[in-house]
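Shipment paperwork, digital attachment
Item: protein structure file
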Amino acid sequence: MNYKKLDSYIIKKFLGTFFYAIALIIVIVIIFDISEKIDDFIEKHAPLSQIIFVYYLNFVPYFVNLFSPLFTFIAVIYFTSRMASNTEIIAILSSGISFRRMLRPYIISAVFLGLLSFTLSNFIIPHANRKRMEFEMAYLRNKRHSDAMNIHMQINPGTYIYAEHYDAAPSNMAYHFSMEKFNDKGLYYKLMSDGAKWDSTKGSWTIENYYIHKIDGLKESIKSGKKLDTIINLKPFDFLENTQDIETMDFSELNTYIKKEKLKGTENLLNYQLEKHKRIAFPFATIVLTLIGVSLSSRKMRGGIGFHLGTGISLSFAFILFMQISTTFTTNGNLPAYIAVWIPNVIFGALSWYLLRIAPK
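Attachment content:
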C-alpha cells in the first residue's frame, strides 16, 4: 500500500470531520447566543457591523479552542469507527502496514490541532477576547466597579498598602488608606489617612487628613496635614482586580502579570497560575485523546459507531471531570497548579498506552 496515500486519506478524514463538527457546533452556539442577546443589541443600539466583526468574529476562536479536545476525540471516534465498520482497517493491516505505522497520520493531525490550540489560547484568543469584552462592556453589561473590602497588597518590596474600601466611580477614592514601609530593621515609615483620591490629570494620589510616622532608630517623628500629593506605585486598576482579565493576556503578558501579583500577594494568584499551565496542558490533551479514540474505535464491534461514540463521549466527560477535581485541589488546597492541570493528561496518557497495547494489531 502507498504510505503517502494512506497518510493523506486519514489526515483528510481526521481534519475534515473535526472542522465540520466544530463548524456545526459554532453555528448552533451563535444562533442560541443571538436569541439570548438580541434584546440587548436592540436596546443598546449596537451597530450590525460591530456585532458581526467585533463581537462574533472574536467570539468564534474562543469557542473553537474551548471545544477542540472534545471534538478531536469525537472526530477520531466517528471516522475511525466508520473505517472499522467498512473493514478498511482490516484491509490496511492485512496489506502489511503495522498498527503503529497506521497511527502516524493520526499523531500528525493531533499535533497540528494541538499546536493550533496552543497558538490560539496563548497568542490569538487573548487579543480577540479584549475586543469582545470591550464590546460587552459597551453594549451588554454595566461598567466594572469595585466591591472589594479590606484590600491588602504589596506594591514594592517592603512596601504594603491597605484600604478599607475602594470606590471606582465616580470618586476614584480609597477609604481609610494606609501605607507601611519596612527595611531590614523593621518598620520605619507609616502613613495613615481618611482616604487617598486618584488625580488622573497629575497621575498622582491626593492623601486626605493624614498622619505620617517615621522611625529612625531611637528617633521618631510624626507629621500630619489635610492634603498631600504623592506618587505611589499604585494605579486605580490595581483595585479593580477581575479574574476575567487573564483571558485578555497573551503568554508573555500573563507571565509578567503573575510576577506582579506574587509581589502584591493577591488572593487570586492560583487562578492565574492555573490559567498559565492550562494553556500548555490543554493542547497536549488533544494528542492523548486522539490515541485513546483510535484504540477504542479501530475494532469492529456489534454496537458499531453508536457504541464507540457513547464510550468516547463518556471518556471525554470523565476527562473534564478529572480536570475540575484536580484544579479544585489547587484552589482549595496546597496542590501546585502545574501538577493539578497535568494530572488528567498523565492518567489518560497511561490509559491510552494500555489501550494501544490491547488494540487489534
